[in-house]
Automatic annotation (TrEMBL):
Reported cofactor(s): Mn(2+); Fe(2+); Zn(2+)
Cofactor notes: Binds 1 Mn(2+) or Fe(2+) ion per subunit.
Coiled-coil residue windows: none
Name by which UniProt lists this protein: Zinc uptake regulator, Fur family
Residues given in the record as Fe cation binding sites: H89, H124
UniProt key word Ion transport: no
Source organism of the structure: Piscibacillus halophilus
Main location class: cytoplasm
CDD domains (UniProt xref): Fur_like (cd07153)
GO biological process: negative regulation of DNA-templated transcription; regulation of secondary metabolite biosynthetic process
Length: 136
């Protein structure tokens, strides 16, 4: 997803445009991978003295609800990134060091469906964690 797409979604859903929101989205737009609320706070505090975690989390939650951001949990902490924009079903490898991702085109549910005969599976999430070649 591009920054302009994210801002358009925000506007189309009736949310107010603010420079702070654009700066949050710009941060994720330039980052290549998942980042934490602390990473975002460090970035924004240079421009917005006294910005709070409450402001950060409120916006992260909003952007997640609008599917502008994707989230995952690494070592007990939520990490966020701009939605990857892939139209087709896929999963991700996530580097635990730098947060970069790589799309996984195959889906394990294709193999697991035989174990769930009679069950109605409504959704699933599959991620692989490790170190990318640059961090390994």
């Amino acid at each position: 997803m591009q920054l302009n797409q994210a801002l358009t979604i925000l506007k189309d859903e009736g949310y107010k445009y603010t420079e702070k929101r654009e700066d949050i989205l710009s941060f994720f737009n330039k980052e290549d991978g998942y980042r934490t609320a602390s990473d975002l706070l460090s970035f924004l505090s240079k421009k917005y003295e006294g910005i709070s975690y409450d402001t950060i989390y409120r916006n992260l939650h909003l952007f997640s609800e609008l599917n502008i951001l994707e989230s995952t949990e690494l070592d007990g902490e939520k990490h966020f990134r701009l939605a990857c924009g892939h139209e087709e079903h896929h999963h991700h490898f996530i580097c635990k060091s730098c947060g970069k991702t790589k799309a996984i085109k195959s889906c394990p549910m294709n193999l697991l469906n035989i174990d769930f005969n009679g069950y109605l599976i409504e959704n699933h999430k599959f991620e692989i964690y490790g170190l990318c070649p640059n961090c390994n």
